Amino acid sequence: MASETEGAGAAAPAKRGYVKFSARLARVLCARIAAGETLRAVCADPDMPNRGTVTRWAREQPRFARIYHRAKAAGAPPEGLGPNTTYCPVTAHEICARLAEGESLTAICDDPAMPAMWTVMHWQRRSADFADALTLARRTQAERLADAGWAMALAATPETAILTSVRLAQLRWTAAIKSPRTHGRLKPSEPPAPPPQPQVLLFKYFHAERDEATGHMRMVTYVPDPATGRAVRTQEGPWQAPVDGAAKAADIERLSRERLARRAEASGRPAPSAKHDPEGWL
Question: Does 211 map to a domain?
C-alpha cells in the first residue's frame, strides 16, 4: 500500500523550458567551455540550453559559431583529447571523405557536429592511420584542383585571361601545399643514407732483429692493435747468417765474367775483359 502511495505521489521529471539565445548566455556558455568544462556538463545546468539547442545556435549564428569553436579549442586538454572528443574512427573517416570531395578542413571543422581544428590536428599527431588517410585525402584534393585548373584554362577568353592567370597561380600553390610529392615544384627527397662505417687499415711493420751473440739476423713482423693502437709482435722469421759484402761483390763479379765468356764463345769472338781498362792501368 505504501509502495502504491509512493508510486502515485512520485512527480515526473520537470521538462526543461525553451531557452532563448542571448549574447550574455552565449558568453557564459563559451567561457565555461573555454575553462575546461564539457558541453555535456554545461548543458546539464537547468539554466543552460540542451546540446541540440547549442548545435542549432552554432549552425544559425555565425558569430557564435566562431566564438564557440575557439572556446572548444581553448578548453581542450593539452595532453589528451577530452572525454567528449576522443578519437572516433567514424568521424575521422567522414573528415577524410569530405576532404577528398573538395571541402576544406576549415569548413569541416566549422560544422558543429565535427571536432575543432585543434582536435583534428591532435588526432593526426596521435594516430598514424588517420595521418595517412589525411595525406591521401589531400592528394585527392590536389588532383581535383588540377582538373579544375585545366577546365578553367580551357574556358579562358582574352577578356578573362588575367583573372584566370591569377586563379591558376593560386590553384597551383594550393595543390603543391596539399600534395608536394605529386604537385610541388620541389619534390621531397628521401633522407640521405647514413655514412658508411669508417674503414680501419692496419699496416704491418717489419724490423730486422740481430742476435748479438752469433751475429745472425731475422725479420720480425709487427701489427698495430685496433683497440690500443700499439704494435703487437705477430711473426718471426728464421735466423740467418749475416751477409759478407766483399764476398757478395766477388760472387757477382765472377758470375758476370762467366756470362760474358759464354756469350763470346757462342759468337766466336774473344771474350772481353770484365773491367774496361783502355789505358792499361789494371
Answer: yes
Q: Does residue 82 form part of some domain?
A: no
Structural domain includes residue 59:
yes
pTM, two decimals, is 0.41
On whether the CB atoms of residues 114 and 103 are closer than 8 A, the answer is: no
> What would the grid cell of residue 73 be?
579549442
Indicate the helix (H) or strand (E) that contains 219: strand 217-224
DSSP secondary structure string, 17-77? PP----HHHHHHHHHHHHTT--HHHHHTSTTS--HHHHHHHHHH-HHHHHHHHHHHHHHS-
Pick from 233, 245, 185, 184: nearest CA to 206:
233
Q: Which set of grid coordinates corresponds to residue 124? A: 593526426
Asked, for residue 221, whether it belongs to a domain, the answer is yes
Of 110, 95, 98, 104, nearest to 174 (Cα)? 104
Q: Between 269 and 194, name the one with better pLDDT.
A: 194
Beta strands in 61-215 (DSSP E): 205-210
33 by Cβ neighbours in 10 Å (0-12 / 13-18 / 19+) ranks as buried
pLDDT for res 279: 54
Spatial neighbors of 246 by CB under 8 A, at least 6 apart, are: none
User: Residue 23 is part of which domain span?
Assistant: 19-75
User: What is the arithmetic mean of pLDDT over 107-123?
Assistant: 86
